[in-house]
Design brief:
heterodimer; A: MetI-like fold; 2 domains; 11 helices; about 70% helix; B: mainly alpha; MetI-like fold; two-stranded antiparallel ribbon; 3 strands; about 75% helix; about 5% strand
């Protein structure tokens, strides 16, 4: 006798067991490598494969690795400066594109999207060629020696900020701006009291994005950094090339946790932004 | 939207800094590389200099890239690996995007987040994490050995021989799929979510099977998302440097690795510049194709 099958709505694809199983499998495959890497950073063994007990000694080792800590401080410094400059530049471009109609606007938008679409390696070698051609001074005292990397980071991250802020501004009611002007507010007053409060969640989201983009970038930094100016991903890269050790796992885990915190913050900001807007 | 003429001062204040930055720290650097690609190593006192480059407007670098079999093989292999990785991404991401789009509204944002979150994690770290998975004493081999031993196959065929999963083309393709999958899910999800579900109902009601509905209704209707996803994954795959560098070793090289070598170890900047501009032209070609195809599909529906 045939066993009656559970009735499934023909369009309920998400309810089908095998579809769910497939999704679950992809989910596990996406996360397993990173989760294993993080878990084995606490493993009390040089070999990364069998669990030999919990330890934080590799974190201590990473903490006492002066080169690693220096690279970490460099990364945070670059990311901080990048966040401020890229957010301001990106917000200005977003306002420009949101507010004005001007000749060759779509060409200008394409130009702004260029750093996002071209392969990272092309931008990396361009930065390398540029800074060596114009004779950008090297060997300056900290933090000026990070200027080349920071300039490159701003160039690739502010177009992302512009996209995020512009998406936010798309929901703004232009009549509010007109009302403000009709009531006699100046350009700056209108911006500060009417536009800026609405724009703020977009700015915060854009700033967080710029921060992680800078903190995570390897390829472009790899070409602009010198022996004196190593960032965290570049340092991890040189360690990985040397060997795969639990110390690298520990350092990577710290970076992953920072990124996840920033991502969570960004999500919260976006949710609040959605809740605020009518 | 107002015309820029109405308020020129505000217009220029807003346009100035961003345009300046992109012009000086992006367009001019690219221009320098473009000019470099027409140069050759300078000859000083009858010796070929290692550091100096002379711009002679020669096409020799491009000819070398496209005619020298060594580089031609690498270019073809890069394209082939990228096409394979992109196709695999599509095959894996389509059902995933489907599940997310058809999930209940309560679950949907969380499922979407689950797929996008890895994208936030550092590319280098995700690639590095794969080394521990694929190496000789890695998790895959460890699991396989455990299965092998549990099935008592070691008594029949002798001890388990670990598979060489790293430092070959397989590792590069697997790495690219792993790293760029989220790029594929997003556009697919966007187009599947917009899909008019009554079309699917109509197809099923009229007697088409699920498979026929998928192939003749769902896939054609979501074609813009498929094209977007294919190109969004293909471009970074083709330009990738890190994946082949860490997982491919010396056996599996892609264009990105050759470019890196020219600018670092080999110190042949003009040739590296020519290669990176070839890569850019392919990228622009792919983007133009995307614009063309999506317009085409858009008018047909």
């Amino acid at each position: 006798m045939r066993v009656p099958r559970r009735w499934v709505d023909p369009l309920d694809y998400a309810g089908r067991t095998w579809m769910r199983a497939f999704f679950g499998m992809v989910f596990i495959l996406l996360y397993a490598p990173v989760v294993l890497m993080m878990a084995f950073s606490f493993n009390d063994s040089k070999r990364n494969i069998v669990w030999r007990g919990f330890t934080t000694k590799y974190y201590e080792k990473a903490w006492n690795n002066d080169g690693l800590i220096e690279a970490f401080i460099n990364s945070l410094t670059i990311a901080a400066i990048n966040t401020i400059v890229a957010t301001i530049l990106g917000a200005m471009v977003a306002l420009l594109l949101w507010r004005f109609r001007f000749p060759f606007k779509s060409a200008y938008e394409g130009f702004m999207a260029l750093p996002i679409v071209i392969p990272e390696i092309c931008m990396g070698v361009a930065m390398l060629a540029f800074f060596s051609r114009i004779g950008w001074p090297t060997g300056m005292p900290w933090p000026l020696n990070l200027s080349a990397i920071t300039i490159a980071h701003i160039a690739f991250s502010f177009p992302f900020v512009a996209i995020v802020v512009r998406a936010r501004m798309a929901g703004f009611n232009r009549e509010l701006e007109e009302a403000s002007r009709d009531l006699g507010a100046s350009e700056w007053q209108t911006f500060w009291h009417v536009i800026f409060p609405y724009m703020r969640p977009g700015l915060v989201a854009g700033a967080l994005l710029a921060f992680t983009l800078s903190l995570d970038d390897f390829v472009i930094t790899f070409f602009t950094s010198g022996p004196e100016t190593v960032t965290f991903p570049v340092k991890v890269y040189s360690m990985v090339r040397f060997s795969v050790t639990p110390e690298v796992n520990a350092a990577s885990t710290v970076l992953v946790v920072i990124t996840l915190i920033v991502a969570a913050l960004m999500l919260r900001v976006q949710r609040q932004g959605q809740a605020d807007s009518p | 939207m107002e015309s820029y003429r109405k308020n020129q001062r505000v217009f220029w204040v807003l346009a100035g800094p961003g345009s300046f930055w992109l012009l000086f720290f992006f367009l001019i650097p690219l221009g320098i590389v473009w000019i470099l690609s027409f140069g050759e190593k300078a000859v000083i006192d009858g010796k070929i200099s290692i550091t100096e480059t002379e711009i002679t407007w020669t096409l020799a670098n491009y000819v070398r890239a496209l005619a020298d079999p060594v580089y031609l093989v690498i270019i073809w292999k890069s394209i082939w690996i990228s096409v394979l990785a992109t196709t695999l991404c599509l095959v894996i991401a389509y059902p995933v995007a489907f599940v997310i789009a058809f999930a209940t509204p309560r679950w949907r944002p969380w499922l979407l987040l689950a797929v996008i979150l890895p994208f936030w994690i550092n590319l280098l770290i995700r690639t590095y994490a794969l080394i521990a998975v694929f190496r000789i004493r890695g998790y895959v081999n460890f699991t396989l050995e455990w299965i092998y031993d549990t099935l008592w196959l070691n008594r029949l065929f002798g001890p388990f021989e670990p598979l060489e999963l790293l430092y070959n083309d397989f590792a590069v393709v697997a790495g690219l799929v792993y790293v760029f999958m989220p790029f594929m899910v997003l556009p697919l999800f966007a187009s599947i979510e917009r899909l008019d579900r009554s079309m699917l109902e109509a197809s099923l009601d009229l007697g088409a099977s699920q498979l026929a509905t998928l192939l003749r209704v769902t896939v054609p209707l979501t074609m813009p998302g498929i094209i977007s996803g294919l190109i969004l994954v293909f471009i970074p795959c083709l330009g990738s440097f890190l994946t082949a560098d860490l997982l491919g070793g010396t056996n599996a090289t892609m264009i990105g690795n050759v470019i890196e070598r020219q600018f670092k170890a080999a110190n042949d900047w003009p040739f590296g510049a020519a290669l990176s501009f070839l890569l850019m032209y392919v990228t622009f070609g792919a983007l133009a194709l995307r614009a063309l195809l999506s317009r085409d599909v858009g008018t047909r529906i």
